[in-house]
Predict the 3D structure of the following.
Amino acid sequence: MNDLNIQPIGVIETPFENPEGMPIQPEGALGVEGRLIIDPVFEEGLNDIDGFSHLILLYYFHRSSGYDLMVTPFMDNTQRGVFSTRAPRRPSQIGFSVVRLLKREGPILFIRGIDVLCGTPLLDIKPYVPKFDAKDAEAVGWLETHQHKVARITSDSRFSNQSQKTDNQ
Amino acid sequence: MNDLNIQPIGVIETPFENPEGMPIQPEGALGVEGRLIIDPVFEEGLNDIDGFSHLILLYYFHRSSGYDLMVTPFMDNTQRGVFSTRAPRRPSQIGFSVVRLLKREGPILFIRGIDVLCGTPLLDIKPYVPKFDAKDAEAVGWLETHQHKVARITSDSRFSNQSQKTDNQ
């Protein structure tokens, strides 16, 4: 299959200049505020967005390169298939987070609960709608016994110089 | 900002050959089954995935081209900013759904609750984890009075020849 060309719509500003010490999920970054700086050519597309309390962000792990199909997540010490993790070094290099929208000022969105490196290219914003997006998932695989660690784990050098987000559960 | 190159990891098979009559959200496609056909070179990355009941899918609206910053969603008759909708004709052309995983057979994942056109390129699979991904969103903007229509609305020719998924709320 051919590669697809995708154009960023803006950039994510956060307090995190380096992966070390960064939360590994928005759950561990609940109080962390950041900004989405949208390219002015896309500003009109932000109409109506301030009616939503939460947004889905898709972004690009720009400091990752390459990928492994088996990875050892921060929250585990066993190798797992990359598609069963949120590891940044993945084939698509695309990351996903749901964040709280605080306010909009023109082409700038102020958000809370963000866990990516400053300068991360933003690919898309979608409204978060629980009726569509929240599921009663009765099984969370290998994360079952690990997911509660996420709020107190921060990243280390495991993916250093390769990952912009150390979010890999 | 430069365009980014993203390589699909597989393709989504569904019963939907054309947009007309297709559900506009997984909520309207709860019983619809499909398959993710993963490129064998990525198969190893599927390890551990069958422990999860729900998966996040990112895919590419390959039959969309171009975008509008203001769109009239199916569930509304007012123009809205594209980033406050799920319209397929959007700058990134990336779509997002949470689906149920039924079973895995080698490089093939059987899923339920899928609302995209057959042949849609799959960009990424991530485990759906309610602790990370489900939010108590107290505001869903213009969708507040419209979201309950989603299960009975199907698509029409509004985005015909342009959209592979008519999911735009």
User: Anything to note?
Assistant: The CA atoms of residues 54 and 100 of chain B lie 4 Å apart. The beta strands of chain B are 4-6, 10-13, 33-38, 54-60, 70-71, 80-81, 94-105, 108-112, 120-127. Chain B has one domain: 10-130+139-159.
